Amino acid sequence: MISYEEQFTKLGYSFGEAQAPGPMMDAVVIDGETAYASGQVPFEGKTLRGVGKVPSQVSLSEASECAALCALNVLRAVRHAVGSLDRIERVLRITGYVNADPTFTEAHLVINGASQLVMNVFGSAGRHARTALGLAQLPLGVCVEVEMILKLKSK
């Protein structure tokens, strides 16, 4: 069986740099065998993608790609905190926030990008509970933010 680390790179993703945590919070908090990952926005390196409201300024498909990028950034932060994606036993929950126009009702379709990415990396261990919310605004004006709760393997 291929490891999660190998699957991650096989899918063409790079570990790169994890985004630095904010001055008043940690990117990942570990409590026992549970990792709580703070929300990540769609930074690609130092470039912020997907600024604006969905769907008037950012298309549904672009927002979904940005949700996948957010999930990728969450996994980078978790890997940085625990040392390896192979420490992850299961993705428990994803919460996705969409910077939505007032009449937009398809936040769940945007967050499918994040869900698909984790299922591609973790297979059945990537199935998770999920909430997708449309909000009036997000930090930095981004179209999407994603956070996760993950179960870690016992040491």
Report on this model:
With 155 residues, the chain is α+β, with helices and mostly antiparallel strands. The protein has a single domain, classed as 2-Layer Sandwich (60s Ribosomal Protein L30, Chain: A), CATH 3.30.1330.40. It is 30% helix and 28% strand. The chain has helices at 4-10, 60-82, 107-122; strands at 28-31, 34-40, 43-44, 47-48, 88-99, 129-135, 144-152. It has a five-stranded mixed sheet with strand order 1-2-7-5-6. Strands 3-4 form a two-stranded antiparallel ribbon. Helix 2 crosses helix 3 (107-122). The longest helix is centred in the middle third of the chain and has 23 residues, at 60-82.
Question: How do you describe this structure in short?
Answer:
Helices cover 30% and strands 28% of the residues.
Overall number of domains = 1
CATH topology: 60s Ribosomal Protein L30, Chain: A
Beta percentage is 25-35%
Gross morphology is: globular
Q: What's the CATH H-level superfamily name? A: RutC-like
Q: What features would you highlight for this structure?
A:
single chain, 155 residues, alpha+beta, 60s Ribosomal Protein L30, Chain: A, five-stranded mixed beta sheet, 7 strands, 30% helix, globular
Topology diagram in text:
Elements: H1 4-10, E1 28-31, E2 34-40, E3 43-44, E4 47-48, H2 60-82, E5 88-99, H3 107-122, E6 129-135, E7 144-152
Parallel strand pairs: 5-6
Antiparallel strand pairs: 1-2, 2-7, 3-4, 5-7
